[in-house]
From TrEMBL:
<keyword id="KW-0274">FAD</keyword>
<dbReference type="Pfam" id="PF00667">
    <property type="entry name" value="FAD_binding_1"/>
</dbReference>
<protein>
    <recommendedName>
        <fullName>Methionine synthase reductase</fullName>
        <ecNumber>1.16.1.8</ecNumber>
    </recommendedName>
</protein>
<dbReference type="InterPro" id="IPR001709">
    <property type="entry name" value="Flavoprot_Pyr_Nucl_cyt_Rdtase"/>
</dbReference>
<dbReference type="InterPro" id="IPR017938">
    <property type="entry name" value="Riboflavin_synthase-like_b-brl"/>
</dbReference>
<keyword id="KW-0288">FMN</keyword>
<dbReference type="GO" id="GO:0050660">
    <property type="term" value="F:flavin adenine dinucleotide binding"/>
</dbReference>
<feature type="domain" description="FAD-binding FR-type">
    <location>
        <begin position="272"/>
        <end position="534"/>
    </location>
</feature>
<keyword id="KW-0028">Amino-acid biosynthesis</keyword>
<dbReference type="GO" id="GO:0009235">
    <property type="term" value="P:cobalamin metabolic process"/>
</dbReference>
<dbReference type="InterPro" id="IPR039261">
    <property type="entry name" value="FNR_nucleotide-bd"/>
</dbReference>
<keyword id="KW-0285">Flavoprotein</keyword>
<dbReference type="GO" id="GO:0005829">
    <property type="term" value="C:cytosol"/>
</dbReference>
<dbReference type="GO" id="GO:0046655">
    <property type="term" value="P:folic acid metabolic process"/>
</dbReference>
<keyword id="KW-0963">Cytoplasm</keyword>
<keyword id="KW-0949">S-adenosyl-L-methionine</keyword>
<feature type="domain" description="Flavodoxin-like">
    <location>
        <begin position="9"/>
        <end position="152"/>
    </location>
</feature>
Length: 697
């Protein structure tokens, strides 16, 4: 009878890296406690749901990828609803609520969710619950948690209204009873990325465990002690906690005596064809005393079908650090079993809906292969993972602290000591030594090890059969939450891989004489649909790329030089490059830019050095945005009068936004218009794909 009374809603998710799926699963788990049943599907499973005939409310959780695109799993769905022949009342029968995930560090925040939301509205669908836009930059949970809290009342109301319309008055009493226990939440929540000061009330404990512990059993620290990853202070240390429901176990791992071969790396990639290519050259572009180490690598793609244009990106399939894998095996008590084959399958009788082996985990491989190539062991643990780790922890104090970190009351501590500190599983296991998770738990909660994306720094026209790219070796210093310093997963691995190849001469773009190498890496293309040279070579363009942000512009200039040599009768527009770094003598990555200037490929080169001291009466500009302002008239002329292009590549947080602000100031000043009007013009340039960014955070 209980099962019969549960009312259905359709739950759709579209995910790129697993976050939207995890949130959808949380909604699915909580639904039962509210007398509801979530019919959950990935948006890619279009044969399992039909919005054209859907009568029940629909809940959508969707992330954003790339430069504002819907995730790969939503592409077919988005293409279908964007059919221009659909009438404006196509979805007039549909009621839905949408939760979008994004990162405000990037230009098109939550654009995947916004795109679907806007189109459903255009086709007549109605909101039964306001759209939520969660920002990974400040913490998804700031919007996700209260959005889910308010969802249940909105769903109950939508279902009640639906039943009344259908004349199902016999269920009104049950609905009223259910509503009386729902959280006191305002229906029309204005949730967006601006929500930063949400008060997470203790009484909002729907779908979570309320933890009341005898605090006398735990050694509480003095109130004046500073909190840390392993230590809390009042009020958190003295609070009853609202913690997430324990995620159901669903993976089983069996060790096997048989031997065999591990899967090929290409089987781990769903994005397309992979290519195993040799590294033919490695050059350190920075001096040894530079703050960052920048390397240029050259790959031989001559014997492959790999194609690219200047401005494109590509992905490198990289492994986790060997020593970290060995350390993890040791903590798990599996040091002797790293080379043993394991079979990964779904646990019989699991309560997880639609449980299946994660696609990035092979059915059969060695344990070390899974930890090295499949799981992102450096990932910041989600709260659901912390909740699961609680059950693997024997020390009562450590158990309590993990409960705090995944609780509502410990949200600030989680953000500060886990999320913002970039803590990973190994850091947690060192901090909480009595925590002994199973291998199956790691497979359930650690996300897929993602391939790393890099901008191409060459032109196939200029260097046939070669692909170059530039990167800084990322460094993560030791800190209170991280006992040891670490290098970036991919950049650290690449630096170690090419160490024997590094050429003694520095700052060399076209090094004569190449070292032979047998080292190979696996790559696959990631074409950029917009960040390319203007189709018309007579159109002028401006490039802004400090540090390694200059990488794609080397390819631009190489390509332009070859075009000039091959087509002497063509008209070529002027080219501007704004480059900056810390020190002229330590990290001026490509001094050969002068070569492009001398042969006319590059018309104007503007450089600045932010950390070099100057004795000049008027201090030289420190940053690229400062030089842009000095060239305001020329920048405005290229963009407005000559309809030129503007390219920005590099760090989003500390550069791209400042460059954008500088361009707004320039447009405002040169057009004698107010700032709002200048911002509208810049938005128009973006829309026309004449102001283009390739940025990272």
């Amino acid at each position: 009878m209980c099962c019969e009374s549960k009312r259905r809603f359709l739950l759709l998710y579209a995910t790129q890296k697993g976050q939207a799926k995890a949130i959808a699963e949380e909604i699915w788990q909580q639904a039962g406690a509210h007398g509801l049943e979530a019919d959950m599907h990935c948006m890619s499973e279009m044969d399992k749901f039909n919005l054209e005939t859907e009568k029940d409310p629909v809940v959508i959780v969707i992330s954003t990828t790339g430069t504002g695109d819907p995730p790969d799993t939503a592409r077919k769905f988005v293409k279908k609803i964007q059919d221009k022949t659909l009438p404006p009342d196509h979805f007039a029968h549909l009621q839905y609520g949408l939760l979008g995930l994004g990162d405000s560090e990037y230009m098109f925040f939550c654009n995947g969710g916004r795109t679907v939301d806007r189109r459903l509205q255009e086709l007549g669908a109605q909101h039964f619950y306001d759209t939520g836009l969660a920002d990974d930059c400040v913490g998804l949970e700031l919007v996700v948690d209260p959005w889910i809290d308010g969802l249940w009342l909105a769903l109950q109301e939508a279902l009640q209204l639906q039943e009344e319309k259908e004349g199902m008055n016999n269920s009104v009493d049950a609905v009223s009873s259910s509503l009386s226990t729902a959280p006191h939440a305002v229906h029309e929540l204005k949730l967006s990325s601006e929500v930063q000061n949400l008060k997470l009330e203790d009484e909002r404990a729907r779908g979570s465990d309320v933890l009341s512990q005898n605090l006398d059993d735990i050694n509480l620290v003095a109130p004046d002690t500073e909190p840390s990853l392993v230590r809390s202070v009042p009020p958190v240390s003295q609070s009853a906690l609202n913690i997430p429901a324990l995620p159901p176990e669903y993976i089983e791992v069996e060790f096997q005596d048989t031997q065999g071969e591990n899967p090929h790396l290409s089987s781990l990639v769903s994005e397309g064809t992979t290519f195993e290519v040799p590294v033919t050259k490695a050059v350190q572009l920075t001096r040894e005393d530079a703050i960052k180490t920048a390397l240029l690598l050259e790959l031989d793609i001559a014997d492959t079908a790999f194609e690219y244009q200047p401005g494109d990106a590509f992905c490198v399939i990289c492994p986790n650090n060997d020593s970290e894998v060995e350390e993890l095996l040791h903590i798990l008590g599996l040091s002797e079993k790293g080379d043993d084959f394991v079979c990964v399958k779904v646990k019989q009788g699991t309560k997880k809906k639609g449980a299946s082996r994660p696609q990035h985990i092979p059915e059969r491989s060695t344990l070390k292969f899974i930890l090295t190539w499949c799981l992102e062991i450096r990932a910041v643990p989600k709260k659901a993972f912390l909740r699961a780790l609680v059950e693997c922890t024997s020390d009562v104090g450590e158990k309590r602290r993990l409960q705090e970190l995944c609780s509502r009351q410990g949200a600030s501590d989680y953000t500060h000591f886990v999320r913002d500190s970039n803590v990973c599983l190994l850091d947690l296991l060192h901090a909480f030594p009595s925590c002994k998770p199973s291998l199956s738990l790691l497979i359930e909660h650690l996300p897929k090890l993602q391939a790393r994306s890099y901008s191409v720094s060459s032109s196939d026209l200029y260097q046939p059969g070669r692909l170059c790219f530039v990167f800084n070796v990322v460094e993560f210093p030791a800190g209170p939450s991280r006992p040891v310093s670490r290098k970036g997963v991919c950049t650290g691995w690449l630096a170690e891989l090419v160490a024997p190849l590094l050429h003694p001469s520095k700052n060399t773009l076209d090094t004569k004489g190449e070292s032979s190498s047998t080292e190979k890496i696996s790559i696959f293309p990631r074409p950029n649909n917009a960040f390319h040279l203007p189709a018309d070579p007579s159109v002028p363009f401006i490039m802004v790329g400090p540090g390694t942000g200059i990488s794609p512009f080397i390819g631009f200039l190489q390509h332009r030089q070859k075009l000039r040599e091959q087509h002497t009768d063509w008209e070529f527009g002027e080219t501007w490059l704004f480059f900056g770094c810390r020190h002229q003598d330590r990290d001026y990555l490509f001094k050969q830019l002068r070569y492009f200037l001398e042969n006319g490929t590059l018309t104007h080169l503007k450089v600045c050095f932010s950390r070099d001291s100057s004795t000049a009466e008027v201090a030289p500009p420190k940053y690229v945005q400062d030089i842009l302002r000095l060239c305001a008239k020329e920048v405005a002329r290229v963009l407005l009068k000559e309809r030129g292009y503007f390219y920005v590549c590099g760090d989003k947080k500390h550069m791209a936004d400042d460059v954008s602000d500088a361009v707004v100031d320039i447009l405002s000043m040169e057009m004698e218009a107010d700032k709002l009007e200048a911002m509208k013009i810049l938005a128009t340039l973006r829309e026309a794909k004449r102001y283009l960014q390739d940025v990272w955070s």
